[in-house]
Write a structure and sequence with these properties.
29% helix; 7 helices; 258 residues; six-stranded mixed β-sheet; alpha/beta
Length: 258
């Protein structure tokens, strides 16, 4: 790690630790966004009761992931669409930030983006990331790739970045956020079996290399023939696993070390 990255990550440390809730849950039935929002509301209430500042959900929470590409495209919404407004209301009601995944409609009418958005406790949209590194043919059939890693956003003294699933397994993507001063990376994911090496081996190594905290919220359960691996975790900037879930449904709460 170069000296510039070390300096940017070490200066202006916030006064409080960041309490993060990772919601490990199955995807909803395709097109059942109302159910997804109701479950999100319940998870946000529980996370708020435990003092969480941010709740991170799995990749493509609003629609499901491995669904028919044409159906996915028809369900896509812009970043300021009805789902964003509904999530903003949930964030305001429970006074915590929410990072969620959804298919973002493409302005040129191409395949939607696989997107994640951070909405603050006041309902403001703070950051959007479009998945850059698509994983295999299944992603390529459904999504347009994002062009670059987004800019981190600032919240209560913390500089926070967003990545999605396979993005966080790329050293360059993690380093790009760290080089912009990010101290925490929030990651909605839908990592499948048998790729347990991603949460168990890759995350701790990349967190330690770039001196960033990684909060990784995975899906669980099955979606057609696809089985998701769970194992959501909060990894400290020295590579230590601060909190980890198993295979099933869980709301994991952990404090990001200062």
């Amino acid at each position: 790690m170069d000296a510039r990255m070390q300096t940017e990550n070490d200066h202006a440390r916030p006064a409080q630790s960041l309490r993060i809730a990772l919601w490990q849950t199955p995807h909803p039935s395709p097109g059942n966004a109302g159910h997804a929002l109701a479950c999100l509301d319940a998870a946000a209430a529980q996370a708020a009761q435990h003092g969480a500042h941010w709740l991170v959900t799995p990749e493509m929470l609003m629609t499901g992931y491995m669904i028919d590409p044409a159906q996915l495209a028809a369900l896509a919404q812009p970043a300021d669409g009805p789902w964003a407004q509904a999530v903003a209301a949930i964030a305001q009601r429970h006074r915590l930030g929410i990072v969620y995944g959804w298919p973002e409609s493409h302005p040129a009418g191409a395949r939607p983006y696989n997107a994640a958005q951070a909405i603050g406790p006041d309902g403001r949209r703070l950051g959007v990331h479009r998945k850059v590194h698509l994983f295999g043919a299944a992603d390529a059939e459904r999504f347009s790739p994002g062009e670059e890693v987004g800019t981190p956003f600032d919240w209560e003294g913390w500089r926070i970045g967003l990545l999605i699933c396979y993005d966080v397994e790329q050293r360059a993507a993690v380093r790009a956020l760290a080089a912009q001063g990010a101290r925490v990376i929030l990651v909605p994911t839908a990592n499948m079996l048998p790729y347990d090496d991603a949460p168990c081996l890759t995350l701790p190594r990349l967190a330690a290399e770039s001196r960033v905290v990684i909060a990784y919220a995975n899906a669980c359960g099955a979606e057609g023939d696809t089985r998701y691996g769970g194992l959501s975790r909060l990894v400290a900037a020295d590579g230590r696993v601060v909190a980890a879930a198993g295979r099933g449904e869980a709301l994991l709460i952990g404090d990001s070390p200062d």
